[in-house]
Amino acid sequence: MFVVSLAFADLVVAFYPYPLVLYAIFHDGWSLGDTQCMVSGFLMGLSVIGSIFNITGIAVNRYCYICHSFSYGSLYSYRNTLLFVALIWLLTVLAIVPNFFVGSLRYDPRVYSCTFAQTASSSYTVAVVVVHFLVPIAVVTFCYLRIWVLVLQVRRKVKADERPRLKPSDLRNFVTMFVVFVLFAICWAPLNLIGLAVAIDPPGMAPQIPDWLFVVSYFMAYFNSCLNAVIYGLLNRNFRKEYQRIVTCVCATRLFVSETSRIATSMRSKPSPAPMINNNESLRDGHRETS
């Protein structure tokens, strides 16, 4: 459920904000009005913060599953898991709402998109970096460090011929989500560090940030949404099987459609047999009359 929620957060930007960014690039500016700009900025923030909070939720889930396996079943029941996912999205929406009061959702011509303006408010920029990046990073780091400690303990027990507490499939799933977290931290760290630098002294620091550095860090951050599916496919065998099944179904559907279209086209292009029969009968009648 958490992975599906994370996938939904990654897809939000692809459905609405990114097409508008392409439109702005082709028209060399924003010409869609303030309402579209606010909606695009809101959905982009929804995707970003939703991804961060879902990654944090996944880390806490893995920590409870591996380090507190005896209480995991009661804590993460079906109903509770749905509530946790709903809580993640409620916190995501609450984290975005202050942007409308601060007026920080603006069009940035450097990246052709309506996004969070780091110079809108120094205190709010610091709060965004702390709540949306530093706190989740701290929580996820704590969870994964605790899991790594358990992994090392399990390896020692295996060497001592004791029964391990961690299954290989659990370890593979943990590694997959750990790589997701590491890439997230790498992709988002530059933009957040720039935000902190600008928040310290907006009039003095903002002009000193090169446009190319901001653009690279910005698109590097949003490129992170494209990486998660690739990571799942590379590191998780179950995802690879599903990817192969989806590709096979798509290819089979295309072959079926193309074959059906080819047969229909060939049937339409064949001459009708009725005229041939009539022509044969006319030839026979003419032969009788001649005889």
> Alpha-carbon distance between the termini?
87 Å
The helix content is over 70%
Strand order of the largest sheet: 1-2
Order of helices and strands: HHHHHHEEHHHHHH
Question: What can you tell me about this protein's structure?
Answer:
This protein has 2 domains: 2-235, Rhopdopsin 7-helix transmembrane proteins, CATH 1.20.1070; 237-270. It has a two-stranded antiparallel ribbon with strand order 1-2. Strand 1 (105-108) and strand 2 (113-116) form a beta hairpin. Helix 1 runs antiparallel to helix 3, helix 3 crosses helix 4 and helix 8 (168-200) runs antiparallel to helix 10 (211-235). The protein has helices at residues 2-15, 17-26, 33-67, 69-75, 78-96, 98-102, 122-159, 168-200, 202-205, 211-235, 237-269, 273-290, and strands spanning 105-108, 113-116. The termini are far apart. It has 291 residues and is mainly α. It is built from 12 helices and 2 strands. It is found in: Cell membrane. It comes from Umbra pygmaea (Eastern mudminnow). High affinity receptor for melatonin. The activity of this receptor is mediated by pertussis toxin sensitive G proteins that inhibits adenylate cyclase activity.
